[in-house]
Design goal:
alpha/beta, Rossmann fold, 7-stranded parallel β-sheet
Length: 309
């Protein structure tokens, strides 16, 4: 089986391929429009985020047997059609969950204690103590929506902080000792913080919308390190404007190609930019020095198992 690798990966995976005599082509700078034709010479492909394996691309490559994604989600793959074609799918959600969990904590502490605001002001010789009075996490209720690898990792890191952790997942069997499995409605009634960790699918697309916000009993802080399309940014902005959302830490956006924003998206984005209680990061929650290696390690292990090596 020959592998086409179309994104930047840690050399660890390439070293393993060399050791196991696995044939591959490493082409991380390949243009997306070149993938369909280039893939015809390979039975397997490894992608990260820049490539979307659509039904059209997969239809042109019936020889494809394996797709490996260097990351947690599979939303940039037409999963249903790939399964119809008997293509085996591999991803690595356990490789960057720790990075995401720590990023969530960092954004939450900064939001609640206004660290990012105070830092900017002091650097301008503006000394405002009362305006930068923070809120303590202790005693708060945290709602974790989506309890897979990243949701669990976040809940684990909340232990010892004096908080109550509630979680919701479509699969209640994912429950563990780090959070109390409950309903989404219960989280909306009790949570002081809501952190989104669901994978992107038709059920979760814009699940965080105006109705979701209105169903929440009290003002809350919002974290989204899942996928941008999970949260309706118009509803987020409205919630921030009316005070229902106390602050938002967003690592993901509906459209992350900021030079291609529609007129409506641009208006919403500019509103977010001007809000001091909003922290924006460029989809890097799961992208640390450590996760860069871990992703290749997990992929290597799963690929070797699939190949029987």
């Amino acid at each position: 089986m020959k592998f086409l690798i179309v994104d930047d990966l840690h050399p660890y995976l390439l070293d393993i391929f060399e050791q196991k005599n696995i044939t591959y082509a490493y082409e991380p700078t390949i243009a997306p429009q070149e993938i369909a034709e280039r893939l015809q010479d390979f039975e397997a492909i490894i992608i990260r985020s820049k490539i979307h394996l659509t039904k059209e691309i997969l239809s042109l490559n019936p020889q494809l047997q394996l797709i490996a994604r260097a990351g947690s989600g599979l939303d940039n793959i037409d999963v249903a059609f790939a399964k119809q074609q008997n293509v085996h799918l591999i991803n690595a959600p356990e490789a960057n969950c720790d990075a995401v969990a720590e990023h969530c904590l960092g954004m939450l502490f900064s939001l609640m204690n206004k660290i990012h605001i105070a830092n900017s002001q002091v650097k301008q010789k503006i000394w405002r103590r009362e305006a930068n009075r923070g809120s303590e996490l202790q005693g708060k209720t945290i709602g974790v929506v989506g309890y897979g690898h990243t949701g669990k990792a976040f809940a684990k890191r909340l232990q010892g902080l004096g908080v109550k952790v509630l979680c919701y997942d479509r699969n209640p069997e994912k429950a563990d000792n780090f959070a109390e499995m409950t309903t989404l409605a219960h989280i909306q009634q009790e949570a002081d913080v809501i952190s989104l960790h669901v994978s992107l699918n038709e059920d979760s697309r814009k699940m965080f919308n105006q109705s979701f916000v209105e169903a929440c009993r009290k003002p809350f802080w919002l974290l989204n390190t899942a996928r941008g399309e999970v949260a309706d940014l118009e509803a987020v902005v409205k919630g921030l404007e009316n005070g229902k959302i106390l602050g938002a830490g967003l690592d993901v956006l509906e459209n992350e190609k900021l030079d291609t924003l529609s007129e409506k998206q641009e208006i919403i984005f500019q509103k977010l930019v001007k809000m001091p209680n909003v922290i924006l990061t460029p989809h890097v929650a799961g992208w640390t020095q450590e996760s860069y290696l871990k992703i290749s390690q997990v992929l290597a292990e799963k690929i070797l198992k699939y190949l029987g090596k």
